[in-house]
Amino acid sequence: MSKKVLEVENLVFNYPDGTNALDGLSLSIEKGKKIAILGANGAGKSTLFLHLNGILKPKQGNIKFRGKKISYKKKELQNLRKNIGIVFQDPDMQLFSSSVFQEISFGPLNLGLSEIQTRERVDEAMQIMEITDIKDKPTHLLSYGQKKRISIADILAMKPELIIFDEPTVWLDPKHSKEILGFINQINKKGTTVILSTHDVDLAYQWADYIYIFSDGKIIGEGSSEKIFRDNKLLKESDLIKPWIIEVYEKLIQNGRISSNVSVPKSKSELFELI
């Protein structure tokens, strides 16, 4: 049985102004994995995300979910969006209900669930995101960090198989960024596949199981964190810098402090062990 939950084959998409946003792009996502996508603004990341749950339709190419081509009929799209959720970069693009509870209830009610089933899902999502204490508050009066949590709870209440996070830590301070990543990891450990776009190379290196590098609507590099961030040619081509952990590791080798045969540390604690 295939482990691939999502497959993109030769996707081509042009915006009405002629912008070639996706140019024969292909990738595959394994079930349960943590996937990071890096690339400059305008590289095609957000355009791809809008294709993955049927908001945009490609000019050419196919998208398969669980091995089956996605259909653009209304009923099939509703089912697809139940299983593939997107948490947008700006939570204000996603939130529109008057209270937190009503906001998170919208998705399950739209799926046709009963009020009892909806309440159970909303309560579970709020508990995971630690926002039960603000369930009756108006969404427009909340802080950016609180809105970010609600936007994730919105999607969790739908119980999707795959969640896409578009720049989930942007505009957050280090403390709240760490909290959001903690929630994302918790979601992934329960079996949900996660795709995350970011400009933060340190985050991508330490977090991801697999990385794709986008440029001008194409994938110019893919592989494990170590493979991606030790490829100097690829980093130069994609205007990316090395994560600080790899820079320190390579400096230690250069200065004869450690052997080049020592495995590349993936975390700060692993690096400290070498030092």
Automatic annotation (TrEMBL):
InterPro entries reported in the protein's UniProt record: AAA+_ATPase, ABC_transporter-like_ATP-bd, ABC_transporter-like_CS, ABC_transpr_CbiO/EcfA_su, Co_trans_ATP-bd, ECF_ABC_transporter_ATP-bd, P-loop_NTPase
Keywords: ATP-binding, Cell membrane, Membrane, Nucleotide-binding, Translocase, Transport
Pfam families (UniProt xref): ABC_tran
PROSITE patterns to which the protein is assigned, alphabetical: ABC_TRANSPORTER_1, ABC_TRANSPORTER_2
Membrane topology reported for the UniProt record: Peripheral membrane protein
GO molecular function annotations of the record: ATP binding; ATP hydrolysis activity; ATPase-coupled transmembrane transporter activity
An annotated GO cellular component: ATP-binding cassette (ABC) transporter complex
Annotated SUPFAM superfamilies: P-loop containing nucleoside triphosphate hydrolases
Nuclease found in the keyword field: no
Subcellular location: Cell membrane
Transmembrane segments annotated in the record for this chain: none
GO BP terms: cobalt ion transport
Domain ABC transporter span(s) in chain numbering: 6-241
Family: Belongs to the ABC transporter superfamily.
Functional note: Part of an ABC transporter complex. Responsible for energy coupling to the transport system. Probably part of an ABC transporter complex. Responsible for energy coupling to the transport system.
Protein name: ABC transporter ATP-binding protein
High-level lineage: Bacteria, Bacillati, Bacillota, Clostridia, Halanaerobiales
